[in-house]
Amino acid sequence: MNTSILKQGPYLIAILQAGQSDSDLLQLQETLLEQVGRFRSRGVILDVTLLDVMDSFATRTLRGIAQAVSLRGAETVIVGIRPEIAFAMVQLGLDTRLSGVLTALDLEEALAILNRRCREGMCRD
Amino acid sequence: MAEQTNQDSTKSLMEEIGITDREIANRCAFLELGEKDIKELLGIDPVAEAYADPVIEDFYKHLLNFEETRVFFQDRQVLERVKRAQKQYFARLTRGNYDKDYIEDRLKIGAVHERIGLPVKAYLGMYNFYLRNVAARLFDEYKNDREKALRAFLSLLKVVFLDMGLAIDTYINRREQLIGKQQEAMRELPTPVLRVRERLLILPVVGVLESYRAHQLTEQLLESIGTTRAKAAIVDITGVPVVDSRVANHLLQTVSAARLMGATVILTGLSSQIAQALVAIGVDLSQVKTTVDLQSGLEEAERLLGYRLVPAGDKARSDQLHP
User: Fold this and answer.
1) CB contact under 8 A, B253 and A87
2) Local confidence pLDDT in tens for the 125 residues of chain A
3) Which ipTM score applies to this complex?
4) Contact A98/B at CB under 8 A
5) Domain containing residue B212: CATH number
6) B86 near A CB under 8 A
7) Chain A partners of B229 at a C-beta cutoff of 8 Å?
8) For the domain bounded by A5-105, which CATH number is listed?
9) Residue A87: which of B222, B230, B231 has the nearest Cβ?
10) φ, ψ (nearest 5 deg) of residue A109
11) Which of B7, B72, B103, B229 is deepest in the core (most CB within 10 A)?
12) CA–CA separation, B85 vs B108, rounded Å?
């Protein structure tokens, strides 16, 4: 299953699908990193609203994407972690894995965060 | 069948407290209260009958000598009624037949004492007075057979201890029921999530934060963040008397879960005692934004949300200055 990646101005938006396999996630990482370079994107938004579970592999991969994206000069924001999933992640101790990653409630909020950070010069121009 | 339903509707104290036939047998066995004792007690029954009245008189004279116990017998009629009941009880002590009815009676007496607020120390003190009084009379009666007096007295002691155990169990049972009710009431204490400004929530927490409530708080906060699109939430724990490591951990989890959803939680109202206690037990709240009171918490949240609070007067003046 290919994750659709949308280009929105200087940002890339990836909407993760439910029932995605581990290899789909790794494929997504690959594609995203390639596109960050191709479009000279400043930010990546990972929308996880559709996910029913966030296991340790998914969490690790998301962190990996965020770290690699940052090495390519862009910021990552994870969006749409639902209340019950957030709580489950905390109980499983997965929250610490995402401690360095920006999170936002929804797409709108994520765009606001990225815009602000770019304005403040935290992203490259 | 009809009998069954009848029993169900009037649940006996025995059932309520959980005293079964086996439990009674166990208690008797532990006290080594058996046939021999019953025989001993039946043997002194005529003597007991004879000293019943003077014992009762001494008993109540003693009771009325103390302010603490006197208050329970202000009314003459009450006093007479209680005296009669007490006499009946004392008489029954030497009659054998310590059956279910007897046990139920003891539990009832315990429940009554608990309800009127007779302290356990007074209850035990009166037993002691009674036993000393009876011992003196028994040894006086059996001057020539002190062995018999001792045997009878020791048997009486077993029955009395059985009774005391039962009565105290009702005391404890009533208190436990009370505690249960209070816990229930505490659980139902609401933990409201209030919206103070666009995208800013406040959760005032009052009372003990045990795990059930802590869980509820987390759930409500996360739900509200989702529905109100809150960016910041202030959890005010001014009204929480104790924060132990478990509660602190719950709070940490809540903060962390809220962050995953993209909201910042500010913890306010940590008293100096709580702050010191948290440091002493080694809870690390360094990842959490904490402020001393609600006001500074609000200011912090407003800063976070990009609000700037300006007094209306200042604004008017600045408008005049820069038209």
Assistant:
1) yes
2) 677 899 999 999 999 988 888 888 889 999 999 999 999 999 999 999 998 888 888 999 999 999 999 998 899 999 999 999 999 999 898 888 888 899 999 999 999 999 988 887 655 54
3) 0.79
4) yes
5) 3.30.750.24
6) no
7) 105-106, 109
8) 3.30.750.24
9) B222
10) -65, -40
11) B103
12) 12
